[in-house]
Amino acid sequence: MKRYFIAGNWKMYKTIGEAVSLAADLREKLAGCGEKLMIAPPFTALKAVGDVLAGSNILLGAQNMGPEELGAHTGEVSVLMLKDVGVSVVILGHSERRHTYGENDQLINRKVRLALQHGLEVILCIGETLEEREAGRLEEVIRTQLEGGLAGVGIEQLSRVTLAYEPVWAIGTGRNATPEDADAVHAFCRRVIAQLYSQEAAASITIQYGGSVKPENAAALMAKPNIDGALVGGASLKAESFVPIARFR
Ligand code: PEP
Fold first, then answer.
1. Which atom of ligand 1 is nearest to the CA of 235?
2. For the chain, what is the domain count?
3. 207 in Cβ contact with 163 (< 8 Å)
4. Shortest-distance atom of ligand 1 to CA 232
C-alpha cells in the first residue's frame, strides 16, 4: 500500500514552549499513524522538539540550511548543526526563501548537494507564480527549478529527495490547486525526472503537493495517482487541523 509523506512547515511561528506543547500533542494523536510524518519547527525550537519526538513516528525537519559546512557566515545554520540536534529532513527552496529572500536555483542546489552529502533527506520545493502560470510558462519554470535544484545529484542520492510542488499563488492564500491541476504538474515533474534520471526514478520519487492543504481537501488531493503526500503550512500549526490531514484515510 502507498505510504504518503505528510510534512508540517511551522515557518516563523511558535516559541519553544508552544512548539514543545504542539509536538507532544501530535506525538500522542499521531501514534500508530502509518504515513511518513515530519514536522519542521523554527531553528530555536529544534532541540526541544527533537527531545519530544525521540522514539516516535514523527521525523524532525528543518526549514532551511546554510550552503556551507561551517565558517564565517553570520546568521546561517549549518548542516552539521542540524544533524547535531537530530534533524533528518531539510526543506530547501521554499517559495518564501526564493521570493522573499532571493534564493536562486544555484544557491538552492548547493544546499541540496551539501545536505545529501551529509546523509540528510531533502524536500526540494518548486512552483510557479500566478504571473508565470498565466503567461503559459508553468512547465518551463518547473523544468528549470528541477534541473537547477538537482544539478549534480546522482541517481543513488535521489531516493533521499522528495519534491514538493507548491504553486506560489496557493501558499497561505486559502486557494489550493485543484487535485486535477496538481496531479497534472506532478505528472510533468515525473516526465522531467525520467529525462534527467530514469523511468524507475520518475515512478518512485515522492512528490508532495503544498498550498492551502486542509482537512477538507487532503483526501481528494491524495487520491490522485501522482500525489504522494503534502507539505502543510498554516494547517500544521494546530493539532486539530494537522492530525486529520495526516489521518486523511
Ligand atoms: C508551505 O508553507 O509550504 C505551505 C504550503 O503553506 P500553506 O499550507 O499555509 O499554504
1. 8
2. 1
3. yes
4. 8
Predicted TM-score (pTM) of the model is 0.97
Active site residue 131: no
Domain housing 131 = 5-246
Q: How far apart are CA 223 and CA 226, in angstroms?
A: 9
Q: Which residues contact 216 (CB under 8 A, 6 or more apart)?
A: none
Mutational pocket test of ligand 1: of 5, 9, 91, 237, the residue with most ligand atoms within 8 Å of the beta carbon: 9
| Euclidean distance between CA atoms 24 and 202, whole angstroms | 36
Q: pLDDT digits over 232-248, tens only?
A: 999 999 999 999 999 99
143 neighbors 163 (Cβ within 8 angstroms): no
**Closest ligand 1 atom to the C-alpha of 96?**
2
Q: For 114-160, how does the pLDDT look when each residue is reduced to its tens digit (9 = 90+)? A: 999 999 999 999 999 999 999 999 999 999 999 999 999 999 999 99
Rg (C-alpha) for the chain, rounded Å, is 17
Query: Candidates 213, 242, 245: which one to mutate for ligand 1, based on the most atoms within 8 Å of Cβ?
Result: 213
